[in-house]
Amino acid sequence: MGASIRVLFFLICWLNMLTFFCFAEKAQTWSGHVEGETFLLATEVEGHELDRMVYAEGRRTEPGPEERHPSNLKIARVKDLHETSEGSDPWEDEAEEIDSIYDPLEPMNRAFFQFNDKLYFWVLKPVATGYNMVLPQLARVSIRNFFSNLVMPIRAISCLLQGKFEALGIVLVRFVVNTSAGFLGFQDVAKQALNFPVQDEDLGQVFAFYGIGPGFYLDLPFLGPYSLRDAVGWGGGLFINPFDYVVDFWPNVGIRAYDIVNKTSLRIGDYEAMKEAALDPYVAMRDAYYQYRLNLIEK
Amino acid sequence: MICKRFIMVPLFFFMTLVISGSSIAGGPTEDVRKTTDKLIAIVSDPAMKSADRASERAKRIRKAVDERFDWKEMSKRSLARHWKKRTQREKEEFIDLFGKLLERTYLDKVEGYSGEKVLYVGERVDGNYGIVVVKIVTRKDTEILVKYKLKKKGSEWLVYDISIEGVSLVNNYRKQFNSIMTRSSYEDLIKKLRRKVEGE
After folding, report:
1. From CA B113, how far away is CA A189, in angstroms rounded?
2. Is pLDDT at A92 greater than 60 in this prediction?
3. Rounded to an integer, what distance in angstroms lies between the CA atom of residue A265 and that of residue A132?
4. Which of A59, A77, A89, A274 to mutate to test the interface with B (most CBs of B within 10 A)?
5. Cα separation of A255 and A285, whole Å?
6. Of A286, B12, B179, B196, which residue is most buried, by most CB within 10 angstroms?
7. Is B18 at the interface with chain A, CB within 8 A?
8. Is A269 left (phi over 0), alpha (psi -120 to 50) or beta?
9. Is the confidence metric ipTM above 0.85 for this complex?
10. Whether domain B10-197 has CATH 3.10.450.710
11. How many CB atoms lie within 10 A of CB B24?
12. Residue B69 carries which DSSP code?
């Protein structure tokens, strides 16, 4: 039974991939539209703003290699400095552009966002809070390390496919050291003793490395925020997880749920703080996810 | 060869002078550190822990945060293209409300301090703009990378954006504000903002 569900899941993943390529074309026309919009906007704002738009646009329209070169950017910026009295911000081109993830399914996503919100407050949080009282923090951190250690194959393959050989080395050494000296991964000895931190690599980042865009935004029930690309990556990652080859489907789901409860127990309050600070929690979450992934991909 | 060495020695002296001189003037890292240390001192002061002094404690934290954050710059960047369309009074009102919201968010974070280590891992300065990279090591053994963006105003470096793990606060609010304003209006945004700030 477990096998047939896995095959079904695999098919769904591939179907998603196919739809993604259909959407990719649409997404392009969409970004074209935004360019037009920013261009129109640029005429009505002042130098400071204009300069930001130009850079934001420069990023989106894929400038040639010589334009992209940081020293050239700086030259262009120095020119702007003379034009604006206040001077321009040297880091502005890094993150100030107005681009965001395409979200054609917003009504559906908002509904699932509400669903996940309720799931968190009514189920996950009470369970994790109770669990908190039973198990000391040290034990929970160890369990988190144990699960994190098992994700090694995904990280290793992702490093390999991106040609990150140094990171691959770290992933492999971490696995060997933590599995042996770290008692099956419960202790993160590699970080404490060798200063080898976790290499946060996954298949979504591999797809991005090969130039596949995020597609569009998805807020999936139970799973939370994903871009289409990263959701496919996540699905693919399931096939590289050792659990899939050792245990059946339902125990597997149980183990994964336990992993989530354990992780949640270590970060109760984060979601509440995010929601508390946001004027539109859905948009805040969508953008935070987008920026966070972008940051990981750039690393 | 000898000639070179003779040049190198005064050059070295000159360089040490420059380096010590700049540390006296105070770089962005120094300013961030000053505020962080001040906040940690307030939060971990046992005399301030009692319930009846909570408001005084919050006031002191707020003052320390106010000194370091440039609410106006943050408001301007968050409203982005909508900023220009606002009147002077609207701008002032917005800075006040948004500043309060950010202050409270930051205050909650600071109040939750429980002995996390703060490491200063990097600094970049380009003219009047600076970036300070801080690594916070929590007791749960996770590391959080925080990037402060600062702008020099007079002799002080003031924070105008914070990124946590690559998520910029100003960017995040800009998307929210933009989404609300394109959907309804600036008035609606102010209403939402006020409700959020006065909600407690």
Report:
1. 26
2. no
3. 6
4. A89
5. 26
6. A286
7. no
8. left
9. no
10. yes
11. 7
12. B
For residue A241, which phi and psi values (nearest 5 degrees)? -85, 130
Contact B105 A276 (CB under 8 A): yes
Cβ–Cβ contact A266 with B under 8 A: yes
Of residues A66 and B150, which shows the higher confidence score? B150
Q: What is the pLDDT along chain B (200 residues), one digit of tens a residue?
A: 445 555 555 555 555 444 444 444 578 898 899 888 888 888 888 877 777 777 888 888 888 888 899 999 999 999 988 888 899 999 999 999 998 898 888 777 787 788 888 999 989 998 889 999 999 988 777 888 999 999 988 888 999 999 998 999 999 999 999 999 988 999 999 999 999 888 75
- Whether residue A236 contacts residue A153, with contact meaning beta carbons closer than 8 Å, is answered with no
Q: How far is CA A72 from the centre of its chain?
A: 30
Instruction: Give pTM, 2 decimals.
Output: 0.74
A270: nearest Cα among B96, B109, B17, B35 = B109
Inter-chain contact A283–B192, Cβ cutoff 8 Å?
no
Q: Cα distance from B1 to chain A (closest Cα, Å)?
A: 34
Kindly state whether B149 is in contact with chain A, defined as any CB-CB distance less than 8 angstroms: yes
The tokens 């800075």 sit on which residue? B95
